[in-house]
UniProtKB/TrEMBL annotation:
Region (Disordered): 21-71, 122-159
Bias-annotated ranges (Basic and acidic residues): 140-154
RCC repeats: 8-94, 197-259, 273-363, 364-429, 439-517
Keywords from the UniProt entry: Repeat
Species: Linnemannia hyalina
A Pfam family recorded for this sequence: RCC1
Bias kind Polar residues: ranges: 30-65
InterPro entries for this protein: RCC1/BLIP-II, Reg_chr_condens, Ub_ligase/GEF_domain
Protein name: RCC1/BLIP-II
Length: 580
C-alpha cells in the first residue's frame, strides 16, 4: 500500500468536483478509484485498522416486538458514513474518530481548507462553547485513550468520540458518544441525566438545518453545539434523552433518541423512542411537529398547517407512532403462552430524501411523509383528500403530505435508504441462518433515469391523488441480480438463479447493490459516472443512464476475497463508494 493511501478495498467514483470522493483529485471518474487518507502515521493506522477489523453487524432481538429477529447487514467499514452536496464524513469503528473531505467553502468539513483526501477533523480547533465539565471529561478520556490505543492525534480529534454524523447540502451535524466520568474525574455533573452528549452543527443553511435558532445561518468554520428547542430542555421535567443517531436530507434533519421519564427523581422504567426534527418542512418532510407549552416538555401544542409548512429553526418533537403489535408472552402455569399484550414498536432508523423522509419501526413497518410528486411516499392504506397549497383550488393536484403514514404493500424489512425521490428497503434476516439465502431489494418512487432498475412489480396499488380525477398507479418493485457464472466454467444452469444481496444504497438518483460474492451493481442516473461505466477503448466515458443493474468494473480489485466477505456500498449526490 502506498503512503497516504487508504485501505486497498475502499473505492469511490462519480461526482468529484470538490474532492468529495477522497481519491486525491477533483475530477469526476466513472472508473472506481482507491480512496486516500492524508494521515500517514498514527491516524492512518486508526483509519486503516478500524476498516479491516470490522465485522458483520448482528442486531439482537427487540424487546418490544416478537416479530423482530436478528438480522445481518454487510460488513460495514465505518461506524457511520455520510455524503453531502460537496463533502463527505465518516466515523471510524474503534476510535470513533471523525474524518472529512471535500468542499470547505462554508466550513462544512471542520478542516482548514478544502481537501481531496480524507483528513481527521480538527476538532480541538473548531469546537465552540463546550461546557466546563465536558472539557474536563474530554481531557480525562484523552489521557485514558492515549494509554490504550491509537485514538489520540495531534489535531485533538481524540478529545471527542463521535456516535453519528449527517451531511446535507452545505452543512454537517455531528452527535457525540456519551461522556462518562473516569474514576479520577470526580465529576458529578457528568453522571447527570443526559451523559453530556452533544449535538454539533457546522456549515451553512438558510432553512433552519443548523438547528441553532433564529438568525443562525452560518457557523464560521466552527462546530457549534445545538442547545435550542427540545435539546435545550433535556433533563427538565423528569426527562432523560439518550441520543442514538442523526440523519439529514438536502435541507432537513432528523435525530433519533430514547426517552426515559422519571418521577420524583426515579426512572419509571418506561423507555420510548422519539424523533426530533428541524430545517425545512415546506413539503412536509418533517411530518407533523408539536411545541412544548411554556417550556413544559410533557405538555404540547399543535402547529397550524401554515406554520408546519415553514422552517423549523430548532429541534422540535415529531409526532409519529406505528400501529401496536399483538405479542404473546410465555407466562407460567395455567397461563403459559396465553397472555397477550399490545406493545408499541420502537423506531429503529430513518432515511432522508431531498424533500421526503422514511422511518423504520421494529415491527418491519415503514412510514413516510413529505413530497409525493413521484410516488416516493409509496402506496398508503387510503387516499386522503386534500386541498391545494392555497386552499382554494380544490381540483388542483396536491403532491405532498404532512404527516407520517405507513407504506402499504411492503413485506417485513429491517433496513431503508432514500435517494432524492426514490427509496429502497430490504429484509436481511434470511442471511442469519443461510448466508446464501436469496434477498430482494424493494424499490419505489421516481424512475425517470432508471433509479428503480427496471424491477418486476411486487405490489401495485391504485391511489387517488386527484379527488376523483382518476387513479394514479403507485407501486413497489423488486430487483434481483442473476447469478453470474464465469465463461467456460462448464457450470450447468438450471433455471434462473439469483445472487444474495448483502448491501444496497440509494444515491441521489441512482442505486447500488452488493452481492454475497462481492460483485457491485449500479443503475440509474449516470451523468458523473456514478454507475461506474468506465472508459472505452477510444477514451470516451460511458455517462448514459443505466436502466437495469449493471456490473461495476474495478481496474485493480483484489482477485480473491475472504470467506466472510460481505461488502458494502453507499451512494451520495451523484457519487458512489464501495468497500470490497
Amino acid at each position: 500500500m502506498d503512503k497516504g493511501q487508504g485501505p486497498a478495498g475502499l473505492y469511490a467514483f462519480g461526482s468529484n468536483g470538490n474532492g468529495q470522493l477522497g481519491i486525491a483529485s477533483d475530477d469526476d471518474t466513472s472508473t472506481p478509484q482507491p480512496v486516500h487518507s492524508s494521515s500517514i502515521n498514527t491516524t492512518n493506522i486508526a483509519f486503516t485498522d478500524n476498516l479491516l477489523s470490522s465485522s458483520p453487524q448482528h442486531h439482537g432481538n427487540s424487546n418490544k416486538d416478537s416479530t423482530t429477529r436478528p438480522h445481518v447487514n454487510a460488513i460495514k467499514p465505518f461506524h457511520d458514513f455520510a455524503a453531502g452536496g460537496n463533502h463527505t464524513a465518516l466515523i471510524t469503528h474503534g476510535g470513533r474518530q471523525l474524518f472529512m473531505t471535500g468542499s470547505n467553502k462554508d466550513g462544512e468539513t471542520l478542516l482548514r481548507e478544502a481537501s481531496q483526501v480524507f483528513k481527521p477533523a480538527e476538532v480541538s480547533r473548531c469546537l465552540q462553547h463546550q461546557p466546563p465539565q465536558q472539557q474536563q471529561l474530554n481531557k480525562d478520556q484523552g489521557k485514558e485513550s492515549r494509554g490504550r490505543s491509537t485514538d489520540s492525534n495531534k489535531d485533538g480529534n481524540s478529545s471527542i468520540r463521535w456516535r453519528s454524523v449527517a451531511c446535507g447540502w452545505a452543512f454537517t451535524i455531528g452527535l457525540t458518544e456519551p461522556c462518562r466520568p473516569t474514576p479520577d474525574s470526580h465529576d458529578t455533573i457528568a453522571a447527570s441525566n443526559n451523559n453530556n452528549q452533544m449535538v454539533y452543527a457546522w456549515g451553512s443553511g438558510s432553512f433552519g438545518e443548523l438547528g441553532l435558532g433564529l438568525g443562525r445561518y452560518k457557523t464560521g468554520g466552527q462546530a457549534i453545539p445545538i442547545t435550542t428547542g427540545l435539546l435545550g430542555t433535556r433533563g427538565s421535567s423528569g426527562t432523560r434523552f439518550d441520543l442514538v443517531k442523526v440523519r439529514a436530507g438536502l435541507r432537513h434533519v432528523l435525530l433519533l433518541a430514547k426517552e426515559t421519564r422519571s418521577i420524583a427523581g426515579q426512572d419509571n422504567g418506561t423507555i420510548t423512542t422519539v424523533l426530533m426534527g428541524w430545517g425545512s418542512n415546506r413539503q412536509g418532510q418533517l411530518g407533523v411537529l408539536t411545541r412544548s407549552s411554556d417550556g413544559d416538555s410533557t405538555t404540547t401544542m399543535p402547529f397550524t398547517e401554515k406554520e408546519l409548512r415553514g422552517k423549523f429553526m430548532e429541534p422540535t418533537r415529531i409526532v409519529i407512532s406505528a400501529a401496536t403489535t399483538r405479542r404473546q408472552h410465555g407466562g407460567s402455569g395455567a397461563d403459559a403462552g396465553t397472555r397477550i399484550e399490545d406493545e408499541e414498536p420502537e423506531i429503529l432508523d430513518m432515511a432522508c430524501g431531498q424533500n421526503h423522509t422514511l422511518v423504520l419501526f421494529s415491527n418491519g413497518a415503514v412510514y413516510s411523509s413529505g413530497l409525493d410528486k413521484y410516488g416516493q411516499l409509496g402506496p398508503r392504506a387510503a387516499a386522503v383528500e386534500r386541498n391545494s397549497e392555497e386552499g382554494t383550488d380544490k381540483g388542483k393536484k396536491v403532491d405532498f403530505r404532512i404527516g407520517f403514514e405507513q407504506v402499504v404493500g411492503l413485506p417485513f424489512v429491517d433496513s431503508i435508504s432514500c435517494g432524492w425521490n426514490h427509496n429502497a428497503a430490504m429484509d436481511t434476516r434470511p442471511l442469519v441462518d443461510d448466508p446464501t439465502a436469496m434477498t430482494t431489494i424493494y424499490l419505489w418512487g421516481r424512475s425517470d433515469h432508471g433509479q428503480l432498475g427496471g424491477g418486476l412489480p411486487y405490489r401495485a396499488v391504485a391511489v387517488n391523488l386527484n379527488r376523483g380525477a382518476g387513479d394514479v398507479p403507485v407501486g413497489i418493485v423488486q430487483v434481483r441480480i442473476p447469478v453470474r457464472r464465469k465463461e467456460g466454467s462448464g457450470e450447468e444452469r438450471k433455471g434462473l438463479e439469483f445472487e444474495s444481496l448483502v448491501s444496497y444504497s440509494c444515491g441521489s438518483e441512482h442505486t447500488l447493490a452488493m452481492t454475497q460474492s462481492g460483485d457491485c451493481y449500479a443503475w440509474g442516473w449516470n451523468e458523473h459516472g456514478n454507475c461506474g461505466g468506465g472508459v472505452d477503448n477510444t477514451g470516451n466515458k460511458d455517462l448514459l443512464d443505466v436502466p437495469t443493474p449493471r456490473l461495476v468494473q474495478f481496474p485493480d480489485r483484489p482477485s480473491s476475497l475472504p470467506s466472510e466477505h460481505g461488502g458494502w456500498v453507499t451512494g451520495g449526490y451523484g457519487s458512489s463508494w464501495v468497500w470490497s
